[in-house]
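Hello K.,

You asked for the raw outputs rather than the summary table, so here they are, unedited. I folded two proteins back to back in the same session to keep the settings identical. This is the first:
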Amino acid sequence: MQTGIKGVDQLIAKHGIKVDVGFDDFQRRSRLTGGDERAQALPFCMYQKVMNAPLSRMFTVHHFYMPDHKGKLASFLFNEKGELIEQVYYQKVARWVNVCRKLQQWVQTATSDMQMAA
């Protein structure tokens, strides 16, 4: 998997793309239910979706970080069907936005593959 940025490529080679709940220094994947208080730590658009959803709804949140720079790259919110509901790219430079788009494609593919297997 090539993103065009060596540091990100090395992190993907080392950690891969998570398909289940867990975290490392590059990414964090967690599950939330509608109204879950942990949504307060999410970007506002994601917070609204989770807090306004009924308790029966399940969400998956996937965050990517750059550990060396202690910065966020992107966050993605999926519904229980594995469909992308919201995404936030924290980077504004075009080169980094392209990296975030590639991460989004890979996470969506991994999430949909996992949903099909379930």
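The second followed immediately with the same parameters:
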Amino acid sequence: MSNSMKITAGQTSTRTLTDLIRAMDGQRAATITYVDSKGEESVRTIEIHNILTTSKGGIIVRAMCRTRGEMRTFSLEQIKAYTVHRIRFVLALPEGETVSVAHFASSVEQMIDLELERDYPWPKVSLAA
């Protein structure tokens, strides 16, 4: 991946999500331009450990922030630009924090299905009579 910043408004959210999932799966750091809930913009280098869907259908990124040295939550829609680096993760995860397992999906649709299944598992149904 290129080290130039990708502007999220210039591409689909699927493309942004795909790039961030690849960064997570490859344990590659990413630098993001993020606008917080107060409207303040900041640039952060993060190590993505989990990407989840909320009950309202939003997508959140759980990542270690190299600036803060802590696990943080970023809303995908508030990430305005990003770049994925070649450098690997260097921060230790806090105790008790969960991480995502690598995804092996052959299409965007399959990736979305995997994420939804992980966050909203179907009840187990027994077909035995």
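The two ends are 52 Å apart (CA to CA).

Happy to rerun anything if the numbers look odd on your end.

Regards,
P.
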